[in-house]
Automatic annotation (TrEMBL):
The protein's name in its UniProt record: FAD-binding PCMH-type domain-containing protein
InterPro entries assigned: Cytok_DH_C_sf (IPR016170), FAD-bd_oxidored_4_C (IPR004113), FAD-bd_PCMH (IPR016166), FAD-bd_PCMH-like_sf (IPR036318), FAD-bd_PCMH_sub1 (IPR016167), FAD-bd_PCMH_sub2 (IPR016169), FAD-linked_Oxase-like_C (IPR016164), Oxid_FAD_bind_N (IPR006094)
Database matches in Pfam families: FAD-oxidase_C, FAD_binding_4
Alphabetically ordered keywords of this record: FAD, Flavoprotein, Oxidoreductase
PANTHER family associated with the record: ARYL-ALCOHOL OXIDASE VANILLYL-ALCOHOL OXIDASE (AFU_ORTHOLOGUE AFUA_3G09500)-RELATED (PTHR11748:SF114), D-LACTATE DEHYDROGENASE (PTHR11748)
GO process terms (BP): lactate catabolic process
Residue intervals of the FAD-binding PCMH-type domain: 72-260
GO molecular function, a single term: FAD binding
Organism: Venustampulla echinocandica
GO cellular component: mitochondrion
SUPFAM superfamilies reported for this sequence: FAD-binding/transporter-associated domain-like (SSF56176), FAD-linked oxidases, C-terminal domain (SSF55103)
Cofactor needs: FAD
Amino acid sequence: MSPAQESIKDADFILPPDVDAKSFVAAMDEMRKVVGSENLEIITAAKMMPDSDGHYFNLPREHDLFYCLEKDTFLASAVIVPGSVEDVSAIVKLANKYLVPLWPISRGRNLGYGGAAPRLRGSVVLDMGGRMNKVLNIDDEHATALLEPGVSYFSLYGYLQNNGHKHLWIDSPDLGGGSVVGNALDRGAGYTPYGEHFSMHCGMEVVLPNGEIIRTGMGSLPENNTWQLFQYGYGPYPDGIFSQSNFGIVTKLGIWLMPDPGNAPTIRNTLIDAAVYAQKAEYSLSKEVLTETEVDEIAKKIGVGRWNIYGALYGPEPMRKLQWEVIRSTLMTVPGASFQFAADVEKEPKAKVLHMREETLKGIPNTYELGWLDWTCKNGSLLGFSPISPVTGADASRQYEMVKRRFHEFGFDYIGTFVVGWRELHHIVCLTFDKTDPDSRRRAHRCIELLIDDAAKLGYGEYRTHTAFMDQIASVYNWNNNSTLRFNETLKDALDPNGILAPGKSGIWPKRLRNRGFEIQRSSPTSDGASSKP
Ligand code: ADP
């Protein structure tokens, strides 16, 4: 053994389970040869404690910007930036050789759901977007795109604007800096008729956990010209198993663009709008959860209602006029209802939420909604809680009461929005907290932990979650003695026998790491001592 090798100590690294420092260093040496030394960064304890945590535009890739447990709970051992699908395949093969787990991200802006950080401490973050960030193809005639993981909503929008495709619209979620591919894979949502992002994808290229590369749908037919036109191809349709999963790394994704859009409204509460403009302290001296009367006063001050529907009508003007007449006469039967058009509202001295939503409804990416992060403190953090329900008033009210009760118990103002989907409501609840205050973090974490079980008892499940709650949510999707989780584990063990790809994602652990204490249990039992029954 050389002196250099002898001096390698476990304590110098953020090691994944079952890997000692020597084999970690050997793995990194081999991976460095694949991507080049400038594209591989080893994280050390010292490196991970900078004074500043970064922010939305300068994101930490090794830990969660908005950590709700300890800062180093979900911490990466290294960050690797591959430059091609061949690089990815080679890295995956080496990961199998050394049992080094990989955690792929696209832009890593998974705000409120864990950011770029891996679920399993010591995993290597594979930054798929750093160099693989090209718009590979735009098909004007059929309104489709083929993208690499690093293409953000801003960059796709810019590409279409600057390359003669202005007639093609995209659907952007609230924040435009995220990856189109990453958001579709995590089944994120937007606000136009193309807002159901995963449904709008067509064709994938995927590196499997053994390093093999496949193309789904028509992509498996050589020389095909319909990869982005027909979603299914021939035989079983596997695309779904690569979303919110740890069964593959997506290197290319086709998506449909919007030539002729329709309408998709959101229903937002007063405070989410108020928080876009300013901090809580500018509206109220109260340090407590705001009372109903105080929220009424804020609504009056910023000129909105307690609930506000933002929507758009699309198509030729005569059609829009007809549609508006039907909508207006229906909605105006609601006591106290009123309406405004963006064009009739002064933009000066400051643009209103109505103007901001107008951009979003036109598919123009923006970052206005970052505003409400700071509701109770500067540099505030976000935890997302997002249960799904039918599109009924009764369900929306039940969910609102359920969340408000827990938020009040733990000292948080309710900030949320109901996004109307094709057949369901995405209820997006935004818990803002102060990560620099351990008590605020504890309350935020416990509040969501209890809400997950509250929701399950009422039959509501979350569509997506922060890394800290992946195991808990998998545990409430437990019909027929957890048959779904067992099915996922069967697939996982077949596809990833060494357990190297994103262990723990969506609560799916590979055999090698299952039941070894990496699952996160509830911090204490829920009030009645149980999660929902199968
Ligand atoms: P965004 O920047 O759009 O918010 P992220 O890059 O944070 O999205 O991705 C969200 C989640 O989707 C990640 O945590 C990861 O689990 C999954 N993911 C992202 N990109 C890929 C990819 N290329 N292959 C497989 N899974 C991915």
